[in-house]
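Q: Sequence in, structure out?
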Amino acid sequence: MKTYILNKRVLFLLILVTHAIFVSGQKNSTLKAQTDKIIMLDGEVKEGKILAIDENIVRFLHKGETSEYALKKESINEIQFSSGRKEIVNHSTKDLELLYLSTAKDRKGKIAVLPFNYITNDNTIDAEGMTLKLQSNCYNSLKENTIRIQIQDPITTNTMLNKAGITPSKLLSKTPKEIALLLSVEYVVYGVANVSNVGTSTAASDWTTYQEDKVKETGSRPVVVKPEIQYGYVNPYALPQGSYQFSYDSDRDKVTETITNDFGHVKTQTRYENGEIVDARVASIPQYGSYYYSDNNYYTHNGRKSVREKKEEKTKSSGSAFSSNNSTITTDYNTEIDLNFFNDQGINIYSKARTSFGSSIDSYLSTLKYLIKRCPFGTKAGR
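A: Exactly. Output:
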């Protein structure tokens, strides 16, 4: 009987101990399950409780502590929630290498242009849109002004970046080497556009125009001044006797003029089209030979009206006048473009900055062309 009671007590104690161990294990398991984990890009693991996730930071409470920490999302690789859910925030270098396995041979001779960093003090400009616009402009300029290089299409570049969780604002969270490996290219182009609104300028204009009738006009006018003869030859400063004929074709916007001068012993004929000499001839008495022929054409000006004068006379007499008075306000910009080329080893092989000529918003286009022509693959490399 005593033995039975003793065995009963031992059994009861065993049951109590087993229950205590089980409850303790459940508590530990529950505590463990309620712990969140944050794995950093450098491999460090942080355990505790996530309080909130904002756009750029994660608010975190370390296990066993009461102080709140703010962790930058750009430094986080992965979050493992206590519920078992996992979230990749940024791919680690190892992840990228596994995600896009490429060899040096695969990357050889390939280049990609990243979205530009667009900096401006003008809040009316869509800076986010301009990052992609300049990326496209740079890509097109590379196609036109480089040789011996294969250029990756911007759509492909941006798709691969997005798949890896790398937005334009996160580009600097990766090294150029990591970006090159990710995009499977040998070279990557980083660009910065610094665009400053420096104010406005106003230009005023006031003019009168004439609407011409579509007619043709011809005419002639005699010149009756006798030449002055000195020492047996014509005084070049005297006016000869001659004639002036003209014709104006408004359909072709063409004025034809013929001036004939008779010096007595020398006759000249000069023909003009829109003010330019197209034919000049000299006829002389044999005893004087061609002595008086001259390229100066000092004798051809007599009686000739200028082309502008003739056209204004024609249009004023045959058309209608319209007046206009306008002013234009233009926003002026100072623009600087900075380009950097890196290879897949992370080495900067080309770095140049240049201020754009001109003050328009798109003056950067000629600057891009200038810099790209002089890059290692450009048509003017080394100049």
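Residues 240 and 263 are 6 Å apart (CA to CA).
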